[in-house]
Specification:
Elements lengths: L5 E8 L11 H14 L3 E10 L8 H12 L4 E4 L9 H13 L3 E4 L4 E2 L4 H32 L10 E6 L2 E6 L2 H15 L4 H7 L4 H8 L7 E9 L5 E10 L9 H14 E5 L11 H4 E5 L12
Parallel strand pairs: 1-2, 1-3, 3-4
Antiparallel strand pairs: 4-5, 6-7, 8-9, 10-11
């Protein structure tokens, strides 16, 4: 390529790959910078979108680079792969056609291809990428269900626990007795009528953090999981929420105490279950229905963490 070619980069994370080092913002920026240097491109700027949905075009940085494309301020757009722009085939194809009409290039660094040279291939690759995401979510759900059958925890441990290998399996253990006593005291005080705002001041915390502790079922040895139901061509038809008890788990409170705390929370929020909702009596009301605020002091949304 000629040295006069002006380039910009674009980075984006999704909820599905935010924990993957390969797709981190830093790695994307490194790939774009190295590609520009190797191909003697004048790298003007790298737009960093952060975590945004790929099907949503209401993205600040994304729309800014589209504006700059219309102004003719660059010649080449560099991205790690086409899914950084969008996993929606129709949206991606529209962008490719627009850039092609402007005489611009879209380079996917993972394979060094220019998307504007083959719209059909762009659509096919985007479709494959979207299907890969669905399969990834399905495989993750199956892994969760296998842990369910063994009564094992998964995901990130809640406040007060750490991951430790026990008999070749990852288990959550309580790492601090003082934190254990604090969590237990928070549940007992809340059940006995103490306000979250008062406990927040007492523990130098916030009502929001106290609220999240009270809403956490894992302290009672209860785990929730999403079960996916698939149809033809491995398409996900619906999701079902189920729960199970953890085996040989170091609990801080009893299931009865947890349910008492949830009933107390529901006394602050008028709970209206949605029709055909999954029975999740031990879990978040906000996921199974709508709530109406009745006590402003106990609303964690009004506090800043």
């Amino acid at each position: 390529m000629e040295t006069s070619k002006r380039a910009i980069g674009y980075c984006r994370l999704s909820q599905d790959d935010k924990d993957s080092p390969n797709t981190s913002i830093e790695n994307q920026q490194r790939m774009i910078t190295e590609y520009a240097q190797k191909n003697e491109l004048q790298l003007l700027k790298i737009y960093n979108e952060g975590i945004q949905k790929s099907t949503d075009w209401d993205r600040e940085q994304f729309n800014e680079l589209r504006k700059q494309a219309l102004l003719g301020t660059f010649d080449v757009l560099c991205v790690k792969d086409e899914t950084r722009l969008s996993r929606d085939i129709s949206l991606l194809m529209m962008l490719v056609r627009d850039f092609k009409a402007l005489g611009l290039k879209i380079i996917t660094i993972s394979n060094g291809e220019d998307l504007t040279k083959s719209e059909i291939m762009t659509g096919i690759k985007a479709s494959i990428a979207a299907d890969t995401i669905d399969k990834g979510r399905y495989n993750q759900a199956q892994m969760m269900l296998r842990k369910q059958s063994d009564g094992l925890p998964f995901g990130r441990p809640p406040y007060g626990y750490k991951v430790q290998m026990i008999d070749g399996k990852k288990q959550w253990v309580i790492y601090d007795g003082h934190i254990k006593n604090r969590i237990k005291a928070i549940f007992e005080k809340f059940i006995n009528g103490e306000k979250m705002s008062d406990m927040a001041r007492q523990y130098n915390s916030t009502p929001a953090k106290i609220w999240h502790i009270i809403k956490e079922p894992k302290y009672a040895g209860i785990m929730k999981v999403i079960k996916l139901h698939k149809g033809a061509e491995n398409k996900i038809l619906r999701k079902e929420k189920v729960q199970y008890n953890l085996k040989d788990f170091q609990t801080i409170i009893t299931p009865e105490q947890f349910e008492q705390a949830q009933r107390k929370l529901r006394s602050y929020w008028r709970y209206k279950p949605e029709e055909n909702s999954v029975n999740m009596i031990n879990f978040s009301d906000s996921e199974n229905g709508t709530r109406e605020k009745t006590n402003i002091d106990e609303n964690p949304g009004n506090s800043t963490s």
